[in-house]
Write a structure and sequence with these properties.
It comes from Kitasatospora kifunensis (Streptomyces kifunensis). This protein has 81 residues and is α+β, with helices and mostly antiparallel strands. Helix content is 16%, strand content 41%. The chain has one domain.
Length: 81
């Protein structure tokens, strides 16, 4: 699960909050994500949320986590291999 810890390229995409104000997310692609890989992830951070999505499906669904949940997830992902 170290794929979340090694981020390489970035690109921007608008997202919308509850009030429908545009928030520009900067997506960071995992350095483990390649054109041949089947497990590719990207994350985008805001002060209040962490967004996670499949880099091969950038218009598909994204998981949104609080910073506390993201930290707990990273801890579990890196200690339970």
């Amino acid at each position: 699960m170290a794929i979340f810890l090694h981020l390489a390229s970035t690109h921007r995409q608008p997202a919308f909050g509850r009030t429908m104000n545009a928030i520009e997310l900067v997506w960071n692609k995992s350095s483990y994500s390649t054109n041949e890989a089947t497990c590719c992830v990207e994350i985008a951070k805001t002060p209040a949320t962490i967004h996670v999505r499949d880099s091969k499906d950038p218009h598909g669904p994204a998981l949104t986590l609080t910073p506390t949940a993201w930290t707990a997830f990273l801890h579990l992902a890196t200690t339970h291999r």
